[in-house]
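dude i think i finally got it to work??
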Amino acid sequence: MAGGAPPPAAPRPKRPRPPSGRTNLASCVVATVFLIFIIIVVLIVYYTVFKPQDPKIAVNAVQLPSFSVVNGTVNFTFSQYASVRNPNRAAFSHYDSSLQLLYSGSQVGFMFIPAGEIDAGRTQYMAATFSVQSFPLSAPARLGPTFANGDGVGFNYGLRVEPTLEIESKLEMAGRVRVLHFFTHHVYAKAGCRVAIAVTDGSVLGFHC
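look at this
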C-alpha cells in the first residue's frame, strides 16, 4: 500500500562452511587405509593363486632304436619320452629348449626342441629322437652296476656279466608365463638322467633322473 513500510528483505542464504582440516585428514586416512587393504588383498590372491611356478618335467622312458659297436666306436639312435606339466593358471610359452646327450663329460648328441605353448594346468607329452654321432669308448666298459630305472627301483645288474656304458641326458626348457594378462614372468625347468646301456646289444638297463 502507498505510504506503507517496505517489505523486509529476504535473508541471504548461508554459504556452506569449507570443510575443516580435521575432516580432510580423516578422509585421507580412510582412503589410505582402504587402498592399503586393496593392495594386501591383491598380493594375497597373487601369491596364493597366481604365483608363477616352474614347469615340472618327468622322463617316462628311454630307448635306443639302433645301436652298434665297431672297433671300440659306438653309434646309436637315442629316443627319450617325457611329460611336461604346467602348474600355473596361465599358459606356459616355451622357447630356447634343448635335449643334450653327454658321455664322459663330452657332448655326443644335441637337439633343439621347437617352441610351443602348454595350457594352464595341462600336461604335454614330448618325444625326441635323434642320431648320436659316433664316439669311442673312453675306457673299458664296466660290468653292469647296481642301477635304478625311471621309477627309482634298484636292480643289481652287477649279477650280469655283460659290460655297460653310462650316458647322461639333459633336458632344459625355458619360457614365460603371463599372469593376469599383464605380468610376464620367466620360468625354467630341467631334467637330468643317467642311463645305463648294455654294450652287447644296446638295451637300456635302467635310468635314474
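The first helix runs from residue 21 to 48.
im so relieved honestly
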